[in-house]
Amino acid sequence: MEKFEGYVFTALCSTNFLISCLLFSRVTREQREPYMDEIFHIPQAQKYCHGKFNEWDPMITTLPGLYLVSVGVIKPVVWLADLTGEVVCSTAMLRFVNLLFNCGNLYLLYLLICKLHLREKTRTTSRRVLSALSLSTFPVLYFFNFLYYTDAGSTFFILFTYLMTLYSCHKASALLGVCSVLFRQTNIIWVAFCAGTLVAAKMDEAWRLEHTKKRDEKTPPLQVPLSFSGVKKVMLFTLEFLTSPVYMKPVLLVTWPYAVVGMGSIVFVVLNDGIVVGDRTSHEACLNFPQLFYFFSFALFFSLPVSLCYHRVLRFFQALKKQPFFFLLVAGLSLLLVWKFTFVHRYLLADNRHFPFYVWKRLFQRHELVRFLLVPAYLFAGWNFLDSLKSRSLFWSLALLVCLLAATVPQKLLEFRYFIVPYLMYRLHMPLPTLPRLMVEFLLYTVVNAATLFIFISKTFHWPDSAVTQRFMW
Predict the structure, then answer these.
(1) Helical H runs in 344-433?
(2) Any bridge partners for residue 461, and if so which?
C-alpha cells in the first residue's frame, strides 16, 4: 500500500509541476517586466548574481534569503549549461526558483500530513495525497509561485522547520528556522511556535498528571470548561509551570536551539533598532487587533468545505445558550477592540491593484457601522477556528493562539499574504477531512486560482498618469 501511495504521489508531483510550468510560461509571457514588489527584488537578486553583495536597495524591508538561495540555485545551472548573456538571472529565471519551492512545499505538506495524522494511516492514502495537493494550491500561496516574491521560499522553510521539530531534530529545525528568518523576519514567530509545541507537550503532561491525582475532577484531564473559572485555572497553572525549576529544566534541555535563534533575533532587533531593514516608513508596528478578526474570517472562507457542518453550527448555538455571559463579554471586548484599535494603512486605501483594496472599499467603507455589525460573524469565525482544533491539546492550542496574535495584530496593513503560514498551520492540524470534503476544497481552490490568474493576465488597466500596464493581484 505504501509503495502504491509513493507511485501515486510521485505522479501527482510531476503533474502538478507540469501544469504549474504551463501557467508560469503564460504569466511570464504576459508580464515580462518586473511587477509590483519585483521592481525591488529582481534588481537586488541580479546584483547578487553579479557578485555585488555589498550593494543594497534601501527600499527592501526583508533580509536577503531569497536572493542568496536564488544565486545558489542559478549559478550551478548556469555553469553546467554554459549559459551567458541576458538569460542569466533574468526575470523568468529568478521567478522559476519559486516554482521549485512550490514542488518542495507540496512534498513537505504531504510529509507533515503523514506525521500529524499518523493514527489515521490506514485507508487514508487518497485523503493524505489530496489534502497535500489541495494545500499546495492554496490560492494566496499558489499565485505567488509565478512572481519573484518571498512567500514560496518563506513558507518552504517554515514548513521544513516544523517538520524537523515533529521528528525531534531540534538543531536542524533551529538552523532551518534561521533560513526562514532570512526570508522574512517575522518568521521568528513560527520558529517560536515550534519551540512552543515542545513546551505545550510538557505542560500537557504536567496538567494530566496533576488532574489524575484529583479524583473529584469531573472534566477530562485535557479539557477546560469555556468559562471564567476555566480561564483562571489555566492561567494559574501556566504561571506555576513557567516559574517552577522542576518543570522548566527538561523544557530548556529540549528547546535550547530555538532559544539561541530567538536570542539572535533579539540581538538583531536591538542592533538594527527594529525588525525592519531598509524603508521603515510603511512598516510601522501597531496594535491592530481587528487583524485577528480578519484572519478568522479569511480562515473560515477558505476552510469552509472542510470545517463547516450543520452539527458545528448547532454546537455554536448550544454554547451561546450555555455560556451567554461569557459570549457577551467576548462580544463587548471585540466591539471595543474594533472601535479603538482599527488602523487603516494608506496603501490599503490607495493601491487599487490589490484585492484587499476592494474588500475594504466595498464592505468596510460602505458604512461606518459595518465594522461593528460584523462582530457576530467574527465571533462565529473565531469559534469555528477553535472548535476545528478541539482534537488538539489545550496548551498546543494556546501556543498557536499566542503566535497567531503575534503574527497578525502588529501588522497595520491588511495583506492576505501575511495569513499564509497561520492558515496552513491551522489547516494542517484539523482532523483529516473526508474525501468528498477534500474534493470540494480542491475545487474551491482551483476555481479561485483560475479566477485570480485569469484576472491578472486578462483584466489589465492603466492609471491616468502612467502608461505602465497595471494588473489585479492578491
Answers:
(1) 346-350, 355-359, 370-373, 375-388, 394-408, 420-429
(2) 470
pLDDT digits (tens, 9 = 90+) for 79-103: 887 777 677 789 999 999 999 999 9
Q: Are strands 461-462 and 469-470 parallel, antiparallel or unpaired?
A: antiparallel
Per DSSP, helices labelled H in 117-214 are 125-136, 139-143, 151-166, 170-183, 188-213
Question: Which grid cell is 398?
Answer: 494556546
Residues 6 or more apart whose CB falls under 8 angstroms from that of 349 comprise 357, 360
Phi, psi (5° rounding) for residue 470? Answer: -105, 150
Which residue in 157, 166, 219, 153 sits closest to 190, CA to CA?
Answer: 157
Closest by alpha carbon to 8, among 102, 105, 110, 145?
110
Name which of 443, 314, 290 is nearest 387 in CA terms. Answer: 314
* Predicted pLDDT at 467: 85
Model pLDDT, residue 249: 87
What's the CA gap between 282 and 346, in Å, rounded?
9
Q: Quote the pTM value.
A: 0.93
Q: State which residues of the chain have pLDDT below 70.
A: 1-2, 85, 119-123, 213-230
